[in-house]
Each structure stands twice: as structure tokens, then as C-alpha cells.
Amino acid sequence: MIVGMIGVGEMGVLMAGHIASKGIEVYANDVVSGRIADAVARGAKAAEKISDLASVCDVFIVMVRTDDQVRQVTGEILKGARAGSVIAIAGTHHPDSMKALGAIAAEKKVGYVDCPVVYGMDGARDGKLLSLCGGKAEDVEKARPALICYSRDVLHVGPLGSGEIAKTCNNLLHWVHSVSNYEALLIAKRYGIDAQRMREVLLQAPAYNNTLDRWDHTKFTWQEKDMDVALDLAQAGGLVLPLTGTVDQLVKLFSAADVKGLLYGDEATYLGRKIVALKPEEGGLG
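Request: output the structure for the sequence above.
Response:
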């Protein structure tokens, strides 16, 4: 198997390195030449142009940021991709884009799989991402030997677009937990209990959630994009999701600095208000 890794930024370069470490020939391509060099240092081979990959690769893994970039990359691949090869989209994108691009690929007899990953940078570093896949079973199976190199598992969710819907469900719960975790720990902090200590307690209680466990590593970078997709799917599906709408508004106010202040600082900020611990005479514990 020969794999083309298109998009070797922060996560893509690690994914390419894991593929190379498993003895699979992998070529790295990116619009930033320095990133290609980083991938080569991890065992990949350089491909300055997508056209250099199109006619030689069995599987193309695409890890780019936007739907427009996915469309552009898919178009470049399809100019020379062999019939029977598979394009696997590993980033977070709209399921409608996946279905539309999959139909174009099918005309060229090229398979198309959406396989977004979860577990973030920690998972990418450790080779323990989880790939959530949508597409034809045979296409997922063809891509599986490459995807499993950086994944704890490769889960086939359903038809094309299903992987992105699964990722949206995961991301929605992540941001819901971010808001609920913050509000819960804010109560503890207000009454003089160390918020980090309360977090440690809750991680051993029924309230445990993975977001709370990994909260120090949440960058609060993609919440607006994630929530936009969730709300768009709700609108298109005729769903009334009031909690999702509220979280969409609240999570826009969060940053990694807010979480750091809550867990480790003397005060926290929420909805524009600074929150400090109550003194015993004010109703705090003591």
C-alpha cells in the first residue's frame, strides 16, 4: 500500500509519522514546504505537488481545515487518481460536502470515505486517535490499514457523511460538558473550595466526563465551527434543540485562559463577571 497524506500540519504530520513507523510507504504534501520537511523527518517521503501523488497512491488521507480546501484537494486528486483508490477525509467538515464530493469521486470510480478523528493532539501524538468513518464498507476496509496506524480503532458508522455526523455528536457533547463543567466548578470556587480539587473529586464521581479529564488540553479553537454544523443539521432535520442553541451562545465566551483561571487562579470570569471566593462572614465556608 502507498499512502498520500495531504495536509501535514500539527496533527497531520504526527499521523503521517505513525503511518511511516508501521512500515507503510507514505508521501506528505502541504502548501507549506516546511511542513513537508517535518513529515520527512518522521519517515515520510516528500511530494511537492498533489499531482505527484495522484497516480501512485492507493489511499489518500486529507487533513485540511475547511470545506473549500477539501473541495480543492479532492479535485486535484481526481485529475489523476487510479480507479479503485480511496480518498479518506480525516478533518471535521459538513456531511453534505462529503456526500457531494463522494458523488464526484464515484464518477471516476474512486472511493470516498469521511473519517474524522477524535481525541485531539494527545491522541495524535500517541497514535491513539479514534477514526469515525462513513462510506461504503469496502472503501472503509481499503483505507483501514492506513487509518489504524494512528488510531485506537476504526469505526464504520454508516453511509458517506455518517463519520462527520458522529464527530458532530461527539463535539456537541464536548462543548456541552465544557459549559456544564465550568458552571459546576464555579459553584465550588465561589464557596471557597479549590476548583482543581473539586475537579479531581468529580473525576471519581458519577459526574465524570472525558472533557473534564482532559480540560487542560482543550484549546477552545473550533467551538463555533462545531456548533454551526450541529445547528445546521438540527435546522435541516427539523429538530428543536434548545440546549444546543444555548450552548452555542455560551461557548463563544470561553477560552483556555478562562478554564486556567477557574482551575488555578484566585478568581474566575463568567459572562463578564469576576467571581471570587466568598469569605466565611459572607456565606462562604470556613
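The chain has two domains: 2-158, 165-282.
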